[in-house]
C-alpha cells in the first residue's frame, strides 16, 4: 500500500516538474520574441525609410552639429515639407532652414539643425515629418513606424 502512495507522489512531482519547465519555455519564447521585435537593424531602418511616404535615403548622417539627410517624396503628388522632428528619449528636436516643395519621386539634401549626438555612439530617432499637399492645402503629419538608426560620425 505504501508503494502506491510513493508512486503517486513521484508521478505528481514529475507532472509538476514538466508543467514548470513548459511554463519557463513559453516565457522564454515570449520574452525573446518581444526583444527581437523591438530590435531593428540599420539595414531594416534604411529599407523602411527609403520606401516611406516621405523617405529618408540611407546616406543619412548625424554628428555633433546636426543631421544631414536626403528627403525623397514617395507620394504620387507634390508635397511641401514644413517641419522635421527627430524624437528620442530626451525629447523632440530639429529645425529646417525653410520649407520646401518636392515633386513625386524628387529628392533633396537638407541639414536639420538642433540634432546632435556623441561621436562613435549609436543613435535611434523616431522621425516626424509635417508636410502639405499644395494643390489641395491638406496637411499631413507622418511619423515613422521604424526608428532612423545609425552611428554618430
Question: Which SSEs are present, and which pair or pack?
Answer:
Layout: H1 2-38, H2 42-51, E1 54-56, E2 61-63, E3 66-73, E4 79-88, E5 91-93, E6 100-102, E7 107-112, E8 122-132, E9 139-143, E10 148-151
Account of the protein in words:
The chain has 153 residues and is of the alpha+beta class. It has 2 domains: 1-39; 42-151, Immunoglobulin-like, CATH 2.60.40. It contains 2 helices and 10 strands. The chain has helices at 2-38, 42-51, and strands spanning 54-56, 61-63, 66-73, 79-88, 91-93, 100-102, 107-112, 122-132, 139-143, 148-151. The strands form 2 sheets. Strands 4, 5, 6, 8, 9 and 10 form a 6-stranded antiparallel beta sheet that branches. Strands 1, 2, 3 and 7 form a 4-stranded antiparallel beta sheet that branches.
Keywords:
Immunoglobulin-like; single chain; 4-stranded antiparallel beta sheet; 31% helix; 153 residues; alpha+beta; 2 helices; 37% strand; 2 domains
Task: Give a brief outline of the structure.
With 153 residues, this protein is of the alpha+beta class.
Query: Which architecture of the largest domain would the CATH scheme give at its second level?
Result: Sandwich
Q: Provide the succession of SSEs.
A: HHEEEEEEEEEE
Number of strands: 10
- Quote the distance from N terminus to C terminus: 77 Å
Radius of gyration over all CA atoms, rounded? 25 Å
Summarize the biggest pleated sheet.
6 strands, antiparallel
Q: Please tell me the overall pLDDT.
A: 87
| Envelope shape | elongated
Query: What fraction, in percent, of the residue positions are helical?
Result: 25-40%
Provide the domain count. Answer: 2
Note poorly predicted spans: none
Examine the coordinates and then state which fold CATH places here, giving the name of the CATH topology of the largest domain.
Answer: Immunoglobulin-like
Amino acid at each position: 500500500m505504501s508503494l502506491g502512495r510513493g508512486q503517486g507522489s513521484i508521478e505528481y512531482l514529475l507532472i509538476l516538474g514538466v508543467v514548470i519547465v513548459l511554463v519557463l519555455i513559453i516565457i522564454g519564447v515570449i520574452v525573446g520574441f518581444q526583444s527581437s521585435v523591438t530590435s531593428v537593424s540599420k539595414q531594416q531602418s534604411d529599407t523602411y525609410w527609403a520606401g516611406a511616404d516621405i523617405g529618408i535615403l540611407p546616406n543619412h548622417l548625424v554628428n555633433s552639429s546636426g543631421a544631414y539627410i536626403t528627403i525623397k517624396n514617395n507620394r504620387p503628388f507634390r508635397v511641401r515639407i514644413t517641419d522635421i522632428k527627430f524624437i528620442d528619449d530626451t525629447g523632440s528636436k530639429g529645425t529646417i532652414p525653410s520649407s520646401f516643395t518636392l515633386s513625386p519621386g524628387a529628392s533633396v539634401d537638407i541639414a536639420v539643425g538642433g540634432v546632435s549626438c556623441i561621436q562613435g555612439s549609436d543613435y535611434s530617432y523616431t522621425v516626424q515629418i509635417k508636410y502639405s499637399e499644395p494643390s489641395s492645402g491638406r496637411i499631413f503629419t507622418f511619423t515613422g513606424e521604424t526608428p532612423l538608426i545609425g552611428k554618430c560620425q
